Amino acid sequence: MRSVVLVALAAAIGNMLQGWDNATIAGAVIYIKKEFHLEKEPKIEGLIVAMSLIGATLITTFSGPVSDKVGRRSMLILSSVLYFLSSIVMFWSPNVYVLLFARLLDGFGIGLAVTLVPIYISETAPSEIRGLLNTFPQFCGSGGMFLSYCLVFGMSLQESPSWRLMLGVLSIPSIAYFVLAAFFLPESPRWLVSKGRMDEARQVLQRLRGREDVSGELALLVEGLGVGKDTSIEEYVIGPDNEGGNELPRKDQIKLYGPEDGQSWMAKPVKGQSSLALASRQGSMLPRGGSLMDPLVTLFGSIHENLPSENMNASSRSMLFPNMGSILGMMGRQESQWDPERNNEDSSDQDENLNSPLLSPQTTEPDDYHQRTVGTMHRRQSSLFMANVGETATATSIGGGWQLAWKYNDKVGADGKRVNGGLQRMYIHEETANNNTNNIPFSRRGSLLSFHPEGDGHDQVNGYVQAAALVSQASMMPGGKGETAMLPKEVKDGPGWRELKEPGVKRALMVGVGLQILQQFAGINGVMYYTPQILEETGVSSLLTNLGISAESASLLISALTTLLMLPCILVSMRLMDVTGRRSLMLSTIPILILSLVTLVIGSLVNLGGSINALISTASVTVYLSCFVMGFGAIPNILCSEIFPTSVRGLCITICALTFWICDIIVTYTLPVMLKSIGIAGVFGIYAIVCAVAWVFVYLKVPETKGMPLEVISEFFSVGAKQQDAAASFLSDG
């Protein structure tokens, strides 16, 4: 994982520069207004600080769709260039108008980094550590603020501090960011696949994963190009293909093939055994029972609650149980049948478009059953016909405990003729045995499940596992007549505006936009604004002044210390993000935010003595900031980068980021007015109410996404949203 961690850190430097700039301008503006005589021009002074916010909002309006067009890496390179140019212009600024223009350029760089870095990290990170890596932007942003405050504090101790030098120093880390973005960061493999650049995507995945065989994940990225429109949940019992045995009836089966010679397994469709399917059925009925909890929360929860506890460490999540691993290609690391370029080396340009074969052709004859190398859907159909099995599938692991398979329906109609059912994709997940509710005959034997066929008294046949699958139309298509390779379907170029109307996308947008609104109105800006005043009341400012430090320098040092408190809390958040999960972290930390804000309100209204009130306020602010950065500070951006399909991810992130910046502007400019009208107690009281609303929203509407592949997350939103819509439609019609 070393390569993907370094890539995430390099990308997060863009957020470090954002934090650096925010801290620098807070200190530099003190000296800017002296040089340009802005003491009587508070609007211009405020505009200097806010211009970067305006620039970030403006560029966010098209950053997502443009990144879908030209790539994530290209936009990160542009961000580094804008950072550098803005720092040079700020250093040179002969008047306030040039300075305002430079601040606008700086906002452009900030907007691109804040919007696209989480997307980039999510699209390059493995699902097992995606949450940890997506915490890097939060950590780097706070780290950049701390370093900048320390630097500006040191400069403020000089006899004649130079605000130009304070702002111009930004050019140095921006150069480093440009070098890393241009020469070290690879392009997002998901974006490359969306453009049909299969060979480049394979090379990037090999570099990021540190292994040669990445064909399974590459196939997953192709399947993630579509938005699930007809996704269903199906249940199976999966086990070895014991030829000549009678453990499973031959009718109505799916045959699974492993990558090794002669490997094959059987999957029998069943009903009523999967907790995932049960949660889906119960979720679709929730509106009738009057429950306010979104069925999506129940659906996602059914996965996380039923993982085998003995395999919950990150290193083994991709191999949740040995049988399923061997069934779906986890055993052995030899080159598999899913290599999109292995048999096409003679073509120089075929990997640059979506017509590159994803499955390599084989020519083994059907009767060579024990000597075949399972390679093509055509070959599998031949063995299928000999075995009289209804469907065939190929499969491979995609990490996070999920398996990817394709089944090609070739069923017999009422007239006796074969009906082409098309290629379907399956995301398969193991279910634990203790979730049976219909007396289905399963029993636990070690780490495996045993199956008693129909409870008929036969001896136990070890090696069968219970699984649920998300099944939908594949994003790949069979080759033409006489062709044996499977080809990716053509992909639209540009943002999928129509796909925003899909129920799953609309539901994900509701979650993303809701989190961004509640985060900004949860009080972080007000607490940061109030912190220097609190520390001044505790006597910290007076102590620093007695040491010979000016009031301006003391304010900068206090801000540096406040930022320093956040860093260890973010490190704790990194460790917990993929263990307890995003949803659990927010549900655990938001009540502490409420308690801290209520304590601040009480401290403002009740006079317990100056020192006691100041001590209570200081403790409350410290606890608030620590818990905010652990949960509500980073998680909304992480979730927004995870819950949207690849085809509309950039567009949806733009909508969420615009919501973030607009709410940030509203909160920033209404805070002074609110302080004058209702006082500190009223402001923090409102923030406490918003936090309470946020907790209810997270509990009812926000699902847990830890450890799940991005493509599986978007499919869950699709199937859950459509089931709830169908139930609501039934109620309205009834």
From TrEMBL:
PANTHER family: PROTON MYO-INOSITOL COTRANSPORTER, SUGAR TRANSPORTER. Residues 7-706 form the Major facilitator superfamily (MFS) profile domain. Residues 353-364 have a biased composition (Polar residues). It is a multi-pass membrane protein. This is Major facilitator superfamily domain. Belongs to the major facilitator superfamily. Sugar transporter (TC 2.A.1.1) family. It is found in: Vacuole membrane. GO terms for molecular function: transmembrane transporter activity. Keywords: Membrane, Phosphoprotein, Sugar transport, Transmembrane, Transmembrane helix, Transport, Vacuole. The chain crosses the membrane at residues 43-62, 74-92, 98-121, 133-157, 163-185, 551-573, 585-606, 612-639, 651-671, 677-700. It catalyses: D-glucose(out) + H(+)(in) = D-glucose(in) + H(+)(out); sucrose(out) + H(+)(in) = sucrose(in) + H(+)(out). PROSITE patterns: MFS, SUGAR_TRANSPORT_1, SUGAR_TRANSPORT_2. It comes from the Eukaryota.
